[in-house]
Amino acid sequence: MPRLRLALAQTNPVVGDLAGNSAQIVEAARRAHAAGADLLAAGEMSVTGYPIEDLASRPSFLQASRHAVEVLAETLAAEGLGDLPVVVGHADGPFEPRLLGTSNAPTAIAKNCASVLQGGRVVTTTAKYHLPNYSVFDEYRVFIPGDELLVVRVAGVDVALVICEDLWRDGGPVERVLHADAGLLVVINASPFVRDKDEVRLPLVTRRAVENDTLVAYVNIVGGQDDLVFDGDSVVVDGSGTILARAPQFDEHLLVVDLDPEPATDTELPEGIRRVELDATGAPSDGSAVGQARASSPAVARDVAELPDDREQLWNALVVGTRDYVRKNGFRSVILGLSGGIDSAVCAAVAADAIGADAVYGVSMPSRWSSEHSRSDADDVAERIGVQYSTEPIADLVAPFEEQLHLTGLAAENVQARARALVLMGLSNLHGHLVLTTGNKTELAVGYSTIYGDSVGGFAPIKDVPKTMVWELARWRNANAESIGETAPIPENSITKPPSAELRPDQKDEDSLPPYEVLDGILEGYVTNALGAADVVALGYDADTVAEITRLVDRSEWKRRQGAIGPKISGMAFGRDRRLPITYRPTTV
Amino acid sequence: MPRLRLALAQTNPVVGDLAGNSAQIVEAARRAHAAGADLLAAGEMSVTGYPIEDLASRPSFLQASRHAVEVLAETLAAEGLGDLPVVVGHADGPFEPRLLGTSNAPTAIAKNCASVLQGGRVVTTTAKYHLPNYSVFDEYRVFIPGDELLVVRVAGVDVALVICEDLWRDGGPVERVLHADAGLLVVINASPFVRDKDEVRLPLVTRRAVENDTLVAYVNIVGGQDDLVFDGDSVVVDGSGTILARAPQFDEHLLVVDLDPEPATDTELPEGIRRVELDATGAPSDGSAVGQARASSPAVARDVAELPDDREQLWNALVVGTRDYVRKNGFRSVILGLSGGIDSAVCAAVAADAIGADAVYGVSMPSRWSSEHSRSDADDVAERIGVQYSTEPIADLVAPFEEQLHLTGLAAENVQARARALVLMGLSNLHGHLVLTTGNKTELAVGYSTIYGDSVGGFAPIKDVPKTMVWELARWRNANAESIGETAPIPENSITKPPSAELRPDQKDEDSLPPYEVLDGILEGYVTNALGAADVVALGYDADTVAEITRLVDRSEWKRRQGAIGPKISGMAFGRDRRLPITYRPTTV
Known about the structure:
The structure is a homodimer. By secondary structure, chain A is an alpha/beta fold. The first copy, chain A, is 37% helix and 17% strand. In chain A, helix 2 (59-78) links the parallel strand 2 (39-42) and strand 3 (86-92). Chain A is elongated.
């Protein structure tokens, strides 16, 4: 009989929805209890949602969060689940502000906390020690760091409890609490998906387990929150580095696993570490604990999800990000322009996978410059995916502007894209659809789009996907469909034809831009890896091309600032991940 | 004869323009040298511009910054100014990253530095100790904090040198360096304007001087950089709290002042403080220093600028922010819609004050719902200010959309605003004008605007000005004009008539919104002071009204994210100052 049955709740919270998020945890506790778990842990900020950003500076929000955790403890008890210790994540405060100095500046009054609930009350609370303040994270802005570490004794086992970033720092809280002889480390997380993150995260969890010869349980939230997509992928690893359990990526899940941690001893704890003894119902003092319902329950089945391959992970991230933006913001349908090109086809397929094709409205908006294949490819996309489909030619909408304002050149090109925006926004206003904007990361980088035209929309499903990856994802999605006997959603012609904005006769993207393979390579250096132009040239690109592309990237910042959010899937997404001035006069870099 | 003649250079740098920013410092050094100064100090990041944001994560940018400082030192010497010690601010790096842990996250590789240049070289460098990471500041994200303090001995005086935030923290660097018997504290700053900041900043400088019975010299940059407006207001205060010199707010200026600091002694410095001896040309060892040109120059005249009153300060901030956005981004003209209403009238007046009425293009775009007074008031604004003026009726532009899409209700209202946006963007594309968007802070807060309609533009001069303050500024600007015999720019009728979007017959703002006095009061509580709804009600507002307004604020976040930047003048501007999620489901707050 195992010493400890652990349950990890991979929930999908909405920022601010304290009641709804708590209800998810109650449901997980009900199932964990039924499964005979000794301990349940949910993710970082599973009660408040993550990231709460500057809500952490609002005293009333913090009071409400604290209150919600108390109510959750009472609810669990009232539901007959009071014996089960439940670890939840939440914001807490307001505390005395950290370091105001004389500056009168708003500053942190909140802590990022984990609380242990049992017997109808909040038994103990610990706060995150290391606050990430890089990439998309602004935690040093809004949180006060914790100053002590927590070990809870449950079912005869000392369980160390830390929060997300605390796991990542060498010589940090994890090593300290494990040196205090904890038998199990529980890390609660709100860790967003980034391509290849699994190549860093799992090895880290494994390293911590192996180095300390201990069990490590990592529980993460799932779901989209604005530009972030949390991928779950909760995992339990033992001291030999073996994966004992793993939850599916991106899905809500309750992971239950039987563990044999070292029993607790009564060694004195080093300073700065606090031990709290929980009520361990039925736990004999010899450490061979028995959970509430476990005596009568069989050993739990092995639950180790497989991680899908790279393309599928990316596709799923786009789908989840889109679905949750729609759902959590109260929309029921989306609308987008279908040009027959690859970007809008991929966005339509993502949207259909996210909320069902019936709720996706595609609009073909041909102009006088639209090719015959554009119209037929748009028709084909709509039919393959099965979206609601209509056609709104823009010739009669554009002509009055051209005539009244005598528009020529770029102005005449842009007014077409902007007339399309008015069509989509008009239909959105009439019917309540969320407008999706279909620009990809490459376009966004160099400003190859019409602001207030094709950039219009509330969500941008592929804004973090470079053009070359858009093609790859289209091919992957088609192959995936075909492998299970379904219709490939993306017309082959949309994938193979040369990209064109079709805002003037015979226009091709490559008239204005280098080939996309070259362009994406340069952007990988300049944007993703923050190299200077000279360093990008040193990678083997033409100096004039690099100069032109970096110039375009710099001068497009104002457009990007006004762009829709979309799911971050790369290590350097546009948006809060990459903060650069609009007003910028580069001299030598 | 005074012991030390100090010059402070209030320059207006552009982020990234290392050569141009350095040229400003060379010019200041030329004038300071001619005035016989012993020491010149320019502002924080005066070489690189401020804030550089994530440029601090680009190694090539840091290398270029360091190189630019070395070149500046050489240039000063080559110009015959090598004797004069010059303190400049700049980014430096790349250094070994701070705290990477195992996370692979991008993290700080830069320091925010002050260097002392003399004799053609960089004599010494110190780094900012306290890094602000609140409000608009993200310095903990991008900078490594300094770990030692610097005192330079110049002309027989020990001058302590710290950077901006270091001044604000009690018990911080300032107290430590002054306890080391420094005779003068020089603080270099990039401190943006905020309404009433003078009520905090000057008392702080004064308190530091009085508490330590010493001289404090505070030098700040000026000018607009994206949403920030640096106001200069450099000041020198003595140990009795007397202002010895003060530079004008918002203008480039060289402030020269004669000081009698305590002469340096040779006491041992506490650990963590470094003293560097500069070449003090002509400085006798008894401490009665004589500057290079001073022996033959008379005592400098008293230079103490008056701070204008509150309304004038705000107006100037809007003007400088607008002018510098236009100028630094290479525009020569702006275009905006003139509706006859107060917002567009005030924006036109700000723009004309910023870049001259000849470069301001106003467009009246009447619809079928536009009142006669709208047209005549728009004509009147144009004539009073003298802008370039044209009329583009939108009826023929809107009708095809209404007919083809069967637009009604809100959709029909919005298409009018969006047709106007197409007109302005079309004219912008044809002629290269920057489009100004005229929304005020109150509208932005509650989403009372049409996205991709009246929100369209690259810069929003009054985005941080609540509606009630827009009226006050209009009255102030008119009174100011009249007091000097000029035409009042804002028509009285634009100030006094009830505000209306005029998107349907007889529409008034107050049909949809509470009176602006009430609305601005609620927003002051909810937005500026981050109160919860209940706390706003406790201020005396109607609970239903508060519930409705807070709901509108929350659900308009997506629009604000896509809005133009504009000058921050309040303690809580929309934009990077207030970071809140779009996806947010409030339960109880």
